[in-house]
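Figure S7 source data.
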Amino acid sequence: MRANSDDSAVGGYAPYAQLVKMLLPSARCIAIYDNYTELVWCSEGFERPDLRALLEHQHASDTVAGRGRVENTPSGTPVFISALRAADARPLGSVVIELAAGARGTPSMVVSMLRPVLDCLERLLDLEQPAAASAPQPAAALATASERGAGVELLLKVDEQDREDTSALAELLRHTTRELGCVTGALLVPDKHLEIVWTEANSEERAHLDRTQKHLLAWVRLNNRPMVVNRGVAGGAEAPYKIMSCPLRDAHGRVTGLLALFRASTAEDFVEGEVRILEFVGRKAMAVLHSEYDALTGLTNRFIFERRAQRLLDAAPAAVLYVDIDKIATINETFGLGAGDEVIQRVAALVQSAAGATALVSRLASDRFAVVLPECTMGVASEIGGAILGATSQLGYLHDGEALPVSVSVGATVGAARARLPHLLAAAELACKRAKRAGAGRLEIIDDIGSLTSAPTRQTLAAVDLEEALRANQFHLDAQPIVGLRARTSETVGYELLTRLRGPAGEVLAPDKFIDACAEYGLSPALDRWALCAAVETLRPHVQSLLGSNVFFALNVSAQSLESRKYTAFALDTLAAAGLPMSLFTFELKESVAVANLGVAEAFIRDMTLDDFGSGLSSLAHLRQLPVSYLKIDGQFVRRMLTDRIAESIVSAIARAAHTLNLVTIAEHVESAAVAERLRELDVLLGQGFHLGRPAPLLAQLLQQLPAAPVARLSTRA
Ligand code: C2E
Ligand code: CA
Ligand code: CA
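Tokens for the predicted C2E complex:
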């Protein structure tokens, strides 16, 4: 699973993919297809168009009771396939989940694990595809098409197209135009800079067509329905063409473009059946577009990007830029998610225009972009990077008189022909990280990938600083209360311990200032051990009263600590030596900065309840000795659950899954009484967040928890 940043926007299918992985640890890639076996969405790294073949049998063998099956791909990978249906049992499409090789479990077990998330997916698919829901089934469209004899062939040919390129769209348009006996076809989606025209017309006629298309676009935008002109007047004279057009709609149902066919005025009239074919082709065209482009920015999505980028690299040397917006979280927090989205959109446009027409630009994840510049030297790539920096620095976000500067960090690298994209991307990303660490809003380059592994690239100073801070005890622990949501008295049942660093000027630095650097320098295990020792030292004098109060302390454990396999032993030893019971602690795992607590849950569930599905869990297996029994619901969902339907359905799905698994749920980032109330309704047991209690030094929290604690002894650790 790749890192997404914590500020990644909630939306689309990605959160459900995280949920699937959480509920079903053997899940690998996930793909969602519509009724026409068009790919609606897929998770990163999904490279199996051959799964389509498995889907062909979907409807035949899908039974309402079973609702899923496990099959092997031709190459022997097990995949779980389930139909997705609307509440009224209308088929919506299918979900295909690749499982780890050797994964065990019957389809019905998989279905029962995935039920909550399948419910969510069905709701989302139904909502996002109103057109598909009311669309004629392919069979119906084909029947109408057969009126003209040519239609059947047309549609089947389209199905065989390679859909990953706009050439597929051009091909689709050409077929449609010719098979329907037209002289010109046009497919226009202005906001994607997409204008495909296929025509037999001469240049004079073309100028006329150009003007007509603009009018048509305005008309379909206004009227939002198909239009047929079989007889009409244009400027007093008879129109030289018969015209049939229909609107093209984006995933939100907004009209974003137009599909139009022109037939000579002497030819047959357009008939109703042909309008339906046109609409069907229009939906197919949009499905192709949706699967290729990111809805927010209009840039190619990662899936398409990876394929096209590798093709470019195979052909010629290229430069790669990695662009990451600085502090998007601050923008989101200050001005709301809408503002964050707007900044992302504007930066996307700047990157695109700085990179030029020959560049391939993609939004990789929330606020991160990649650019492939074919046949480009490092010199030129740096200039383009500089232009991106310059343009974004002009981009202040203004809102209600408040202004926030916008900046990006850029990493650049170059690769020879046939270089592998992942290597170049990783190098560019690393360069970008360096740019961030060096103060952000700047460009860093790595021009020799080969040297990466050998030359020490660390910023030794920062590493030394951190090591020194650990030695000199410049860190301290804050504790944030975790409270019961059921009783309205909000009883504190535990605390999450959060590490803080005291800066040179005495300021307190939160983990976002040092946690990534720790990970990069391999210091995370040292930090985690420090946190455990600090907690033990602080708690030890109060063990008796703490045990009486049944309160627990949650420590964050880094991925590196888990991987090193020494943390568990260290924790057990340290607690035993201090005479503290294990029951006083729980441990929070975070697989990456991003999947945050979903990752925690995944790891916990893997270990605790789902051994049957497990594979490749060796690095986590030793954790079984630690008490793990709750599920943390990620703050990015909780925070937004009252305003974001998807976020709410995710929280509710996790809550239901947790009940099934007998796990206690903790919702983090509870920022308001209203959210707490909604969580209560969803039967979420525990909550944590600014509304319920801010993080404060552990000692101060303890003093509240244990009013009788001997102050004199506590003050030794002030
Ligand atoms: P986390 O585990 O997700 O911790 C919760 C973070 O959310 C904390 O940020 C906390 O201050 C913040 N938070 C709490 N309530 C709210 C709320 O209502 N709204 C919002 N927006 N935020 C809230 P903090 O303290 O900056 O910690 C950041 C991350 O650093 C933690 O994320 C944790 O993963 C990591 N971390 C902290 N201490 C340690 C440590 O000792 N070891 C390791 N490996 N990681 C640590
Ligand atoms: Ca945590
Ligand atoms: Ca979190």
